[in-house]
């Protein structure tokens, strides 16, 4: 479901207390879970984020720094490092709990926004919180979600920012701005601008560009030399973020490198595949958007991002939360409830299985996979493509779009 917001009076003190209690309760559970799961000794990506913030605090070269013991560099735009300064300024345990709490609450926001108005109508107000808590907890079983939590990655937050921003009504203030900020933090959401173009969302596109430019301006204002280096040099180095053939890279580029390694045909083939699939995605996303199926349109667009990016680590695939809901809705609309339930169980169940880790990986072992090993090793790509095909087939049952783009952001 997408949520339509209307002007209202400020939240009552009791409502604010409930929100505060929920956040504090979530933080306490996160702290307990991190202790039980020994996460305080891990979260390598969160450590890299904090390193980026710490480097800026001490005036050192951001893109020359490496995390001690791992050699991992900071790979995001300068604005991301600036945003991480507060995490670098607090003790490790505080940063870990705060960051993971944000990620967990982002999971809840994704489910709340993705599930339809019809779904919530069957659940009483008192039970909705319990349902969201249960869905959030069960989501930790999904490979992309757990990887994001385990590594301390930023994907859940960015996914929630983009989805919650774009499902808002067309006339919502600064709608699209947070998409631009998300791009300024991590460039991978950039293709979402194409969705705004093909659906003629000019105001949202303007706001998104302004959001991106604002992050760039902040970067140049605070660390001009590092910003220049990033936008003219670092941004072009795909190998900086890790081995392309690694099984964790579930993108067209990763798939092709696992087949052909450094063969001359790999890069041209990746480019052609990305362009063709990107155009197909834009066609389908536009079709769903004009049918007022905004969550589905955004989720379909996310597939273009995942497949076409040079690197799409498995934890980037947290988009499966709204994508799975969209797939269930589409199957239910065409073939009924029972096939929809089976589809949902199979879709989410395959990500629970974590089959990409069943086969030999790391140290270029992926280059020696047999045909049968390549199936589980590329399972995110396979499941995602099946979802795309099903959404394309079921889109034939969508109502014909009206002459204007829907202004409401609510799905029936």
Explain the overall architecture.
The protein has 412 residues and is mainly alpha-helical. Helix content is 64%, strand content 0%. The protein is built from 20 helices and no strands. It has helices at residues 13-36, 44-57, 78-83, 85-89, 92-114, 117-121, 125-139, 143-151, 155-166, 177-185, 192-198, 202-222, 224-232, 252-260, 266-290, 294-308, 320-335, 337-352, 371-377, 379-394. Helix 14 packs antiparallel against helix 15 and helix 17 (320-335) runs parallel beside helix 20 (379-394). The radius of gyration is 21 Å and the shape is globular. The chain starts with 12 loop residues before the first helix and ends in an 18-residue tail after the last helix. The relative contact order is 0.11. Mean pLDDT is 89; it is low at 1-9 and 404-412.
Oligomer: single chain
The main β sheet shows up as: none
Number of strands: 0
Please report which band the strand proportion falls in: under 5%, 5-15%, 15-25%, 25-35%, 35-45% or over 45%.
under 5%
Figure out the total of helices: 20
Distance between the termini: 8 Å
Class from secondary-structure proportions: mainly alpha
Helix content: 55-70%
Residue stretches low in confidence (pLDDT < 50, at least 5 long) are 1-9, 404-412
Q: Round the mean pLDDT to the nearest integer and report it.
A: 89
Radius of gyration: 21 Å
Q: What is the string of helix and strand elements? A: HHHHHHHHHHHHHHHHHHHH
Q: What is the overall shape?
A: globular
